[in-house]
Amino acid sequence: MQQLRYPVDAKPPFGLTLLLALQHLLAALGGIIAVPLVIGNVLKLPTPDTIVLVNAALLVSGVVTIIQCRGIGPIGLRLPSVMGTSFTFVAAALAIGFSEHGVAGILGASLVGSLVMIIGSFFMPYVRKLFPPVVTGVVVMMIGLSLIPVAVDWFAGGQKGDPHYADPANLAMATFVLVLVVILVQWGKGIFSAAAIVIGMMIGYIVSLALGWIDFSAVKNADAVAIPQPLHFGLAFPISGIIGMSIAYLVTIVESSGNFLALGNATQTEITGKHLRGGVLCDGLGSAFAAIMSTTPFSSFAQNIGVISLTGVASRHVVTVMGILLVFAGIFPWFGALIVSIPNPVLGGAGLMMFAMIIAAGIQMLDKVERSKRNGLIIAISIGCGLAVTTRPELLDKLPSFFKEVFGSGITVGSILALVLNLILPEDKA
């Protein structure tokens, strides 16, 4: 395991802290705004309403990230965890949104459903006992493996089916950024190694600008200032929607627990039940706050674990500053629009490396697990089934919506199977 350049409680110099915080922001911003954009577009909301969802998502992400990093009493993981809107809730949100309750129903069901996470947080010390190294290693690997398709799409320049998907120019740009990041991490000194991702992406952005790839129309059209609008859509409380959201929150507890354990490995911190309780409680309270502030529920982001693994910068002070930048982006939309103007291939070059580092961390964890038939079965079945859902999500298309809700994520499938198999498979005989 590499030695950390900046441990959890370290405070790098201000200028470097700002650069490292921007590095985390670049990794997370696209994911944070993606969920409100998807919900706004699919539900055909008026543009001002979609903007409310997006701005609130940025603002609340910043606030919850700061609390998760710094902690307030029993609330917060106190590790460099980035929080953002979660795709786990999209299916339930759209089902409610298409009903007569609309966005008010989504937010009301999210507010009530967050109690599942808030109450569940107090049982996390018991849940921690269910994650021995063989289970934790599988979860960490599945987090990395589930993110690779996202990085591949960025690498190719968009989504499969786009006319310019996998254009040689896109692949060349992504490869250029990837090679640049590798060179900086391996041979760079000081700031050039610690900030390898943001430096690589900045150079890629400059080259893209020279090539005429950058579209500044979103920056020009963005409002100068956005005032937060609590309860903009109102609240409604459909029973079926609350049930759907509650199921999604249960799934999120599993995913967030896995992310926190992976973060513990990346920051070289032993994750205890107390850590998990504080992290999940912050997640639940943050999602309740998001509903009041007019945006969708939250969970921890796995993307940023890759940043830490790759650069060795585990300072929670850096991610706290990143949270402040997110608040800034929520209040001044032009700032977020500028970040979003980064071309996908530039993101893909860095993203592929970041997410692959999470896989490498999982492999290192599993390498320390005793080699036995039982452990081999747990690893093989869990990762195999998790990858089946990740690579072929249509596998669940003909099953009832409940199954798609619960098992739509490869991380969830792999985690649940590893947990269950670890409990039911007998120990190998000596």
Structure description:
- The chain is mostly helical.
- Helix content is 70%, strand content 1%.
- It has 19 helices and two strands.
- The chain has a two-stranded antiparallel ribbon.
- The two termini are 31 Å apart.
Question: Gist?
Answer:
This protein is an all-alpha fold and 430 residues long. It has helices at 14-42, 47-70, 90-97, 102-120, 124-128, 133-156, 168-187, 191-194, 196-210, 217-221, 239-267, 273-292, 303-311, 316-331, 333-340, 344-367, 373-391, 401-407, 410-424; strands at 83-85, 298-300. The protein is built from 19 helices and two strands.
* Total helical elements: 19
Cα gyration radius (Å): 21 Å
Portion of residues in helices? 55-70%
The proportion of residues in beta strands is under 5%
Q: Structural class, please?
A: mainly alpha
Main sheet characteristics = 2 strands, antiparallel
Average pLDDT over all residues: 90
Total number of strands: 2
**What's the shape?**
globular
Order of helices and strands: HHEHHHHHHHHHHEHHHHHHH
Q: What's the arrangement of strands in the largest beta sheet?
A: 1-2
Separation of the first and last Cα atoms: 31 Å
Query: Residue ranges: pLDDT <50 for 5 or more in a row?
Result: none
